[in-house]
User: What shape does this take?
Amino acid sequence: MTAPISTRAALTDANGAAHHVSHVPHSRTASQEAFEAAQRVLVGGVNSPARAFRGVGGTPVFIDRASGSRTYDIDGNDYIDYVLSWGPMILGHADPEVIEAVQAAVARGTSYGAPTLAETELAELVVEMVPGAEVLRLVSSGTEATMSALRLARAATGRDKILKFAGCYHGHADMLLAQAGSGVATFGLPDSPGVPAGTIADTLVAPYNDLAAVEAAFAAHGPDMAAVIVEPVAANMGLVLPVDGFLEGLRRLCDEHGTMLIFDEVLTGFRVAPGGAAAHYGITPDIVTLGKVIGGGLPLAAYAARREVMETVSPLGPMYQGGTLSGNPIATAAGIATLRKLRRPGLFDGIVERTVTLVEGIAAAAARHDIPVQTAHLGTLGGIFFAGGPVHDFATAKASDTDRYARVFHGLLLRGVAIAPSQFEAMFLSAAHSDADIADTLAAFDAVFADLSTAPDHHGYDRP
Assistant: This one.
């Protein structure tokens, strides 16, 4: 094992400037003990598979608290955090304005099962920001949002077939667990046991960024195609950007065939741009799903469309969908506070600038140490693949060096930097990440890459 560097150990960048990585972990004994206890009462010791560290090996870090750009584990170690609860914390952890809004909401009660003014206020913010979102239905999770959006598309068109893309993850509804990304990619499961064959019989799968394959699917099934659902920016197979003309082509084909185009912006909404990928690319979907940022870190999501489409949904139309905790007053309070702050002049642009600095800095560090890496960034999202050639779909993403990613993950963790414990996830930045955080992170990457370049056949880091 590489000898641990000392707390506040100085690292130097390519220009010789000294940076410091805050609190280098020396022990994660408490996390190890906590994981052993958790495995006795929780499936795999976790409540979502990606948290189990199966994609990188080792023991999950148990978090005690978080503030700003950092998380703090139960052993007392702190980390510059680029997981950010897998995306929601765009303002950073425990943002004071969000906390104040949540505390005020909690004091009035935790759930009513009745309409509130906050639900309307949040919906009004979304309608102002997101193209194509004229009317919303609030739900509690991204899976609910995408499942409901597809039910709506089928109800509105009277058709059954849907087309998704390999590596795009749209939640764990049965009909969508066909060549999904995210946690499914980490575990190498193209589909999930327990999903009846009949459930996915009407789910077609095409490669992401392959418009010719989509055209072929429409040629064979156009009259039966209810919807094409896509992550407009794929961020559950790692970060993969759409090639020029791909999204425009999907819009054209859906228009030609009377098919609903669904943008799953559970992850990209409010992160690619304040109005999401639809605003960034100037392409309006028929239905959009939103999650993560919209709830400010609490369980909340939504699906939205133009008014005449949403009037298919009960109580105005025949398509049923409901939820006891939908529009929860605490979650809506957090969402309102988050979106209000996100719209302040300069705030989003500042996050984007630091994202560019980070990702381009990682690429430069890899080049200095002759480590093949592919990087991407858009808005407040970043991505890295350890691959020698471009990554443009799920097949090329899966061909990347996941073992090297695991080595880098553990090397960074030892230096107080947390990225996702899976190659097939994006990096998330927040308004709380400072220039100093970025400099410290790049110094940590440089140190890890230096270790790998001198010992390429050994990871150099234990996996606790």
The longest helix spans residues 347-368. The radius of gyration is 22 Å.
